[in-house]
Design a protein that fits this description.
By secondary structure, the chain is of the alpha+beta class. Helix content is 43%, strand content 20%.
Length: 368
């Protein structure tokens, strides 16, 4: 079951600005206040320059039409002040009206340029999200004796989406899964994620053992990541698993990825491998061999896979998200409820309800 959530963590950044009545009341109240006080002020006091603040404030949250309208109202208010106090042809008021018109035009142009820029960002983000949704196919809720749920949480970094990935494949004897994170962001990271997922889906049914599967993935992604200009800078951390249908175990190859957690008995047990492999794309830089390690995975256990975006979420004090503690507190929940609860905890923990990096989680429960 795919629980990919809408990108609510960055709604203010990626939706067209909607002007509220409270916000609009501020510039109009300012115009009214300055106008009344300026009319009642002594002859040597001139408050007209304060009217410039009204269109400037409006440009910070409204579009060019509303900004221009507020600027027009401010100009009319200045004209009223000039007529009441002296005359419109008075040199002082003439300069104030002229300056107010010029500034209103400038801030209206600024509001227009900002609106155009926001639309471009929204369109770019939409294209990137569509590409990523095509790459990350929803996981089935049932795979043999496994019940599965997944979730993808997006960061708030404008159009720079991440390269988090996950996939599952059924074989004749069990289920194979991969979760990973491409270094970097944007469409290039999505392309690298698509390459890794394509290689996984192509080889998950063909390779007899898990090390052979990971070796195939390394060979598939290395040529694409092997750029002489940034050799060693591009790689994919990944955890590749094989869960047999008829054995209460799971087999894991960790390629520089955070250790999965098994939830049982109110505890969250990290599956730390003795000999972790380097991330995919870096195996050629060091001498290493891919080796699978087995862990207990019995009926009722829930396996939690995640990317580092979960661990790196910080609160306002800079503290990282305590995933093990929060997951242990929700031990006993089914995969869907577990992920829903962890997502709520994660967003509540993150400062301003925004994530610094995209985050993905997959929960798997072994059923009788």
């Amino acid at each position: 079951m795919d629980l990919r959530l809408p990108r609510t963590t960055r709604t203010p950044r990626h939706r067209p600005r909607q002007t509220g009545h409270v916000q609009l009341a501020v510039p109009f109240a300012l115009i009214a206040l300055v106008t009344v006080v300026d009319i009642l002020a002594p002859p040597e006091v001139h408050l007209g320059p304060f009217l410039v603040a009204a269109p400037a404030i409006t440009a910070s949250f409204a579009g060019p039409r509303m900004t221009g309208f507020v600027g027009l109202v401010a100009v009319l208010a200045q004209v009223v002040v000039a007529v009441v106090r002296t005359s419109l042809t008075d040199l002082n008021h003439s300069f104030q009206v002229t300056a107010l018109i010029m500034i209103s035009v400038f801030v209206t142009l600024f509001a227009h340029l900002r609106e155009v820029h926001e639309k471009e960002l929204i369109q770019l983000r939409s294209v990137a999200e569509t590409a990523q949704q095509v790459v990350l196919r929803p996981l089935r809720e049932r795979m043999g004796p496994l019940r599965v749920a997944s979730v993808y949480l997006a960061a708030a970094a404008e159009a720079q989406i991440g390269g988090d990935l996950y996939a599952a494949a059924r074989t004749a004897t069990g289920t194979r899964l991969i979760i990973g994170d491409v270094r970097g962001k944007g469409l290039e990271a999505v392309g690298d994620a698509a390459l890794a997922l394509g290689a996984f889906r192509a080889s998950a049914h063909q390779e007899a053992d898990l090390p052979g599967l990971v070796t195939y993935l390394e060979g598939a992604v290395s040529p694409d990541l092997d750029d002489p200009e940034d050799r060693g800078e591009s790689f994919i951390t990944a955890a590749v698993l094989d869960i047999p249908d008829r054995e209460p175990v799971l087999h894991l190859v960790s390629c520089g990825h955070p250790p999965p957690l098994v939830l049982r008995g109110g505890r969250a047990v990290p599956l730390v491998v003795d000999r972790p492999a380097p991330p995919l794309g870096l195996a050629g830089l060091v001498e290493s061999a891919f080796a699978a390690q087995s862990f207990d995975f019995a009926v009722g256990d829930v396996l939690l896979l995640y990317t580092d975006g979960v661990l790196e979420a910080r609160d306002s004090s800079g503290a990282f998200f305590p995933l093990e503690e929060r997951a242990a507190a929700r031990s006993g929940a089914d995969p869907r409820a577990l992920l829903e609860g962890l997502c709520a905890d994660l967003l509540a923990h993150a400062a301003d309800y925004t994530l610094g990096d995209d985050a993905a989680m997959v929960a798997i429960e072994r059923l009788p």
